[in-house]
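step=predict obj=DUF2891 domain-containing protein n=376
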Amino acid sequence: MKRSTGLALAAALLLAGCGPADKAANDTTSADIPEARPDAVNDRFARLALSCVHKEYPNKISHVMNTAEDAQTPAELTPAFYGCFDWHSSVHGHWLLVRILKTDPASPMKPAIIAALDRSFTDANIAAELAYLDGEGRKGFERPYGTAWLLQLVAELDESDDPRLKTWRETLRPLEERIVAETQEWLPKLAYPIRLGTHNQSAFAFGLMIDYARQTGNAAFEKALVDKSLEFHRSDVNCPLAYEPSGEDFLSPCLMEADLMRRVMPQADYAAWLGTFLPQIPVDGSGDWLTPGEVRDPTDGKLVHLDGVNLSRAWAMEGVASALPEGDARVPALLAASKAHATSGLAAVSADNYEGSHWLGSFATYLTTRRGIGGS
């Protein structure tokens, strides 16, 4: 059975850059970025990231200040990841660029992508990122969402044989090692799962981190994550999918948990677990059992999260379907609902409003390149 969401529908999207950069902090403008090829989805997503990874303002920082000396600009505080409105969006904006380099080597964006990544991934910048984490009260900085994306970025680089990407991977290693060590220290202390539909959700982060641990061969980190996932979720039943989405979700608590558990359970066990966890999944192939979220104001940074929930639901359902036995009667319904969510989510990825454009391209790229299920 072919398990695809038919994402060629996205080829008609008309995307452009995030807008002109602030010259005080950035010399990258839309004029510096090559034009997209007609109907080349990857080019348009790349333009979104290229236009914002070094765009310092507007910016929302999550910053613990200990003294007056901590009153610095985003680029001074975290010089590798200061663009795209916030640290975590900057991180997955950089991931998007690496992903495009690997999946579309003929992209006309390639020279601009390489220049942008060379600019960010320097020893001095990463040393400054580490120095920032050393500040009092910053031990949990961007945990777990931003730190999970940082490890996903490292995993993307790690699986490449390209010497340039290998060099960037080594540049990031000190920050990677700090994040892994602090996460391993945190996991035994985390008594309960974090079941939100936003940044602090544990299931989504654990999934990205497990993929990283397996790619890099970190067996101890993988075991800690797998054990915690099973501890938290093996006995979960009847997830209240009807209560989703909340008004500001960009991750589905139920579907992200299902997408996590496919990574840590044998197929037969997972198929049985899914039946008790999400008994709502139909067996008649219908796609209307789960309705895409509605965004009524794409200029509202919180409400536009629902465009993200449509994209992340789509990849989660595709991931769940990929883990079920061939012929499982739930697969057609999962893929039908995934396709509906992908169509809605991808149509919303636009440069018109920075509230969405600074991050939705990453979610779209994760979906269209099938990153979570071994897409190449």
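step=describe
Confidence is low (pLDDT under 50) at residues 1-25.
step=end
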